[in-house]
Each structure stands twice: as structure tokens, then as C-alpha cells.
Amino acid sequence: MKNVGRWTRVSAVALSVALIAVVGGAQWSSAAAAGMNATYNGGTINLAQGWGSAAVCAVTQAGTSCFSSQANYQAWLSSQLQVEDALVPDSSGNCSSGLDLYQNIDYGGAELVIFVQSIWINLSAYSFSDELSSYKVGACAVSMTDAANGGGDVYPGATSPGSDVTWIGSAWNDRMQSVYVY
Q1: Nearest C-alpha neighbor of 119 from the set 93, 91, 148
Q2: H or E segment to which residue 25 belongs
Q3: Residues spanned by the domain of 71
Q4: DSSP 36-51
Q5: What is the CATH number of the domain that holds 121?
Q6: 43 forms bridges with which residues in the sheet?
Q7: Torsion over CA: 145, 148, 149, 151 (sign)
Q8: Are residues 53 and 96 in the same domain?
Q9: Distances 68 to 1, 15, 65 between C-alpha atoms, Å
Q10: For residue range 51-92, what is the model confidence (pLDDT) as tens digits?
């Protein structure tokens, strides 16, 4: 009887260690997959792990697509404007241009374009948190904050439709964590 009890305890410990390894592995996998997947060059990339050679990524209702050049993005954008619902949820087209976020001043570096409306976009999912230096607001007003999910301080600069900011300023440069397109 003592051997059965000992065997049960050893089995329970072994099972616990195995479960911890499996659960820990699942947590690691989900942490690695926490970013946004995007189509790029016929494949898929996890933007939270970096953009690779992508220069522009567009976030739409249909998903996220990345492009190796501005010319490739513009060609895709022209084709998508014919199918407007792929870009914006409101088919009336009142918000047909996105929020263009740029990594560097004067619209340089990587570019993230947000077309999705009415939800907070956490820039960390796109490897873009603490990266924003310049931006162009499309046809809809935006809000930007220095914490995830719209938390923290609200950016006090120009956020109305058509705003065009070549440098976000020293107080907010590389500080943005989330954006919202109205």
C-alpha cells in the first residue's frame, strides 16, 4: 500500500511538471503570437516580431497588408478604393483615407496606415509603439495616447481631419502607444 501511495505522489508530481511545461509553452506561444499577422510578399509576418523588409503596412477591416515600397502600397490602395468596404466599415465613404503614422520626422521611415475606425489600436501589436515622429490625419478625426487601449495622457496636438504634422514635438516624439480613428 505504501508503494501505491508513493507511486501516486510521484505520478502526480510528474504530471504536474508535464502540465507546467505544456502550459508554459502555450503561454510562450501565445506571447510570441500576440502581434498582428499581416500579408507580405505572398506570405504572413507577425508584425510584433518586426517588419522585415516591409516599408508600409495598412490596417483595414479585412486585415493587415504590408508592402516593400510606397509604390506597391499606392498600387494596392488604388485597387482597394474600388472595393471601399475593404478599407472602411462605413460604405458611405466619409472616412475613405486613413491615418498615416511615420517612424521618423518629415514622413520618413516605416509607415503604418490605419483605416479601421471606432476601436483603439495598440501600436505595440504592429511594432510601432514608441516609434511615432510624424503623421497625417485622413478624412476622420483621431485621438492618440501614450498608453495602451487609450489610457494615459491624450496627445494635445492637431488631430482633426486633414492635419499634417511633420514632427510631433520633443514632448511626444517616440511616445505614442495607441490611436483611435473616429
Answers
A1: 148
A2: helix 2-32
A3: 37-181
A4: -EEEETTEEEEGGG--
A5: 2.60.20.10
A6: 40
A7: negative
A8: yes
A9: 69, 48, 10
A10: 999 999 999 988 999 999 999 999 998 887 655 544 544 444
